[in-house]
């Protein structure tokens, strides 16, 4: 990247309220941007119309404001950007990097093997649609060869995407553009230089890097932070009915998230409001202080070599 500005972002899906796990990811991203003197942008990832809720998007924004996590510029909303995703898809189609697929989810599950990011597509339609079948979706043609990248917390990562991920969907059978394609198009539009998010999204990095290369988009730096879990060891998520952050106790919520990220506030800030805690945290933020555990268990795969430093 030739642009030395720092532009970070937080991109929640509006399927429920902001919970502790989301706050930790948002705070890590916000602090990394502010400590670098950079911008922090907000995107509402509502590309999946079936799951998105207008009320959840409103509640997430209100919670961020109550916690002192102010963003720069207008909020980017995916639902308004579908023409951009279609244009990117057409570029991939024209270059041969995308191909039509007739397979159903059941067929892929029956013919594929389990990988760290889901079922590995067996390549049924890679060389053309089977006789008598029509396209349901479009897939990205993953190139051969290894892929490596540096994570700022986890260190060097390497894998062979064709063997471990396989050709992945970029337009779904219901006509919606897939998460990976929307993500890279939107990040490029914002000029994002640094992606800071939970370690559960580490498997999303290789396919997103491949799409950026195919679309000649800049590659951001990556920092994947530990994932908060519930007492049963499950990742905190809206799917698991994680309770919303109590913004009536905003200072306590921010202090808790800071401690999780390896930056416990000093005793004299024990009852401080969010603004004071955040001011202290910006001045003391060091990504190297974040614990090196918290790697998503889904990455423990023999073909996905995770090198810790």
How would you characterize the overall build of this protein?
The protein is an alpha/beta fold and 309 residues long. It is 32% helix and 17% strand. It is built from 9 helices and 13 strands. It has helices at residues 20-35, 54-66, 82-95, 105-111, 161-164, 179-190, 205-214, 250-260, 274-284; strands spanning 7-10, 39-44, 76-77, 98-101, 113-115, 118-120, 137-140, 147-151, 155-159, 169-171, 194-198, 221-225, 304-306. It has a 3-stranded parallel β-sheet, sandwiched between helices. Strands 4-7-10 form a 3-stranded antiparallel β-sheet. Strand 2, helix 2 and strand 3 (76-77) form a beta-alpha-beta unit. The protein is elongated and about 70 Å long. Mean pLDDT is 89; it is low at 294-309.
Low-confidence stretches: 294-309
Shape: elongated
What Rg, in angstroms, do the CA atoms define? 20 Å
The assigned structural class equals: alpha/beta
Helical stretch tally: 9
What is the oligomeric state here? single chain
- What is the arithmetic mean of pLDDT? 89
Fraction in helix:
25-40%
CA-CA gap between termini: 25 Å
Strand content: 15-25%
Could you give the order of the helices and strands?
EHEHEHEHEEEEEHEHEHEHHE
Q: What strand order characterises the main sheet?
A: 1-2-3
Biggest pleated sheet: 3 strands, parallel
Based on DSSP secondary structure assignment, what is the total number of beta strands? 13
């Amino acid at each position: 990247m030739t642009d030395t500005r720092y532009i970070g972002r937080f991109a929640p899906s509006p399927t429920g309220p902001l919970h502790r796990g989301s706050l930790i990811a948002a705070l890590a991203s916000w602090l990394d941007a502010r400590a670098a003197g950079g911008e922090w942008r907000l995107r509402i990832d509502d590309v999946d119309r079936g799951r998105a809720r207008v009320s959840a998007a409103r509640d997430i924004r209100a919670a961020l404001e109550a916690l002192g996590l102010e963003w720069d510029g207008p909020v980017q909303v995916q639902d308004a950007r579908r023409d951009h995703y279609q244009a990117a898809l057409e570029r991939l189609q024209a270059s041969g990097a995308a191909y039509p697929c007739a397979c159903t989810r059941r067929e892929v599950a029956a013919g594929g093997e389990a990988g760290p990011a889901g079922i590995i597509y067996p390549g049924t339609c890679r060389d053309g649609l089977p006789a008598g079948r029509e396209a349901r979706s479009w897939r990205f043609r993953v190139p051969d060869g290894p892929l490596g990248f540096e994570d700022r917390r986890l260190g060097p990562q390497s894998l062979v995407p064709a063997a471990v991920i396989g050709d992945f969907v970029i337009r779904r059978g219901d006509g919606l553009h897939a998460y990976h394609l929307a993500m890279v198009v939107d990040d490029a539009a914002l000029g994002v230089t640094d992606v800071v998010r939970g370690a559960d999204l580490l498997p999303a990095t290789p396919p997103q890097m491949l799409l950026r290369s195919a679309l000649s988009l800049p590659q951001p730096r990556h920092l994947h932070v530990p994932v908060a879990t519930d007492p049963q060891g499950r990742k905190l998520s809206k799917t698991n009915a994680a309770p919303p952050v109590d913004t009536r106790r905003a200072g306590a919520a921010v202090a808790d998230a800071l401690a999780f990220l390896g930056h416990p506030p000093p005793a004299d800030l024990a009852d401080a409001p969010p603004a004071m805690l955040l001011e202290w945290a910006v001045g003391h933020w060091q990504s190297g202080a974040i614990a090196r555990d918290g790697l998503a268990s889904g990455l423990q795969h023999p073909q996905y070599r995770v090198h810790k430093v």
